[in-house]
Amino acid sequence: MNENSIVSRAPDLFHSYLEKDAVMMNVKTGHYFRLNEVGTRIWDLLEGGPLGVGILADRILPEFSVAREQLVADIIAFVAKGREQGILDIRE
Amino acid sequence: MGYLYQIYGLRIDSELPLRTLTPESAPFEACDLSIRVGEAPAKLEAPPLFECPGLCMNAGEFLYFDEKLGLRFYVRAGREIVVDKNYAKDTDKISLYLLGSILGAVLYMRGIIPLHASAVLTEKGAVLIAGVSGAGKSTLAHALQQRGFTALTDDVAPVHVSGGEVRIYPGYGEFKLWQDSLDNSARQSQALSRVRDCFDKYYVGFREKPEMKPYPVRGIYHLVPGTDTRIRMEDVTQAAERLRIVNECVFRPFYAAGLARQKEQFFATVGLASLPMVTVTRPARFDGAFDQYVRLIEEDLRK
Questions:
Q1: pTM greater than 0.90
Q2: Which residues of chain A lie closer than 8 angstroms to B270, CB-CB?
Q3: Three-class SS of residue B167?
Q4: Under a CB-based contact definition with an 8 Å cutoff, are residues A89 and A9 in contact?
Q5: Count of CB atoms within 10 A of residue B104's CB?
């Protein structure tokens, strides 16, 4: 996975918000997930459809005091975990 | 015309009398659920989404049978229950199943999620008293009724979320209490009817019948039996913890997948987890501290 990988929300999910954090349920497994602040921000950005990792980083960068390189690495780690849990899809 | 009842927001027209429910005197304009005696099918028309011995279901059908006990129920679309005519003999026993496992399925089918909880009405809305079996939900709700609160439901609270508001429907107007909780509240049990043979549980009627409408929920008590003599009340500040607790209290959670109502279950549990929650650890034994316990809760409710 790299900056050009395309990320989207997985199908078969319900999602809502608990306080300010996105929560979702994988329909197939019945498991619940709750995202932290950055995760929720990424989730919200994916509302309109799939986006590249680089674009996600560009959008989020001004909101957090973090180096872009670090942010990209964090997004990739988050997306990989999201795919593992069945809440995100990735197209290389 | 059969017997007319109202429970959990449903107007019911039943060919069988339902134990513990008080029949309505005036006819309904329309009914939500009919219960009739007939031929319950031996299997579902559509493929099951969940199946185990004695139970199978899909989005529009639910079949429950116990040949040993002589029971067979079929539910269609949350609107009709068929009690098989070969099994419709012991109406007391049938009522217990109808009001538990079967009505639970009807609620799910209608997108209403039943929670293991009792509830009382306060000036600021309904308060749920949730917890595992034996945590003391009925005992506390009953004691709060003695102190002037209106009881809304006992044991099962059907939850519906719409427009971001969490509401519950009132239940059928009786508490199921254990003998020791009756002792705590000093009520005589001879005149009360027993819930099931071999169980020391009794029915006690609500003082007043709550108005049959949905009530907005303002908060949740999560009741936990303690291991010592102390009474503790702690706010559950972590949303994830509230969500975990709410999920533990869902009535027959596997019905949601079997009846294809996971979406409603999800929004109900997230809605409930958004509400203020207090974990109440009650003493393992009250030893005379029961009044103090109820008074603490009462003060909290009147805040």
A1: no
A2: 16-18, 23
A3: strand
A4: yes
A5: 22
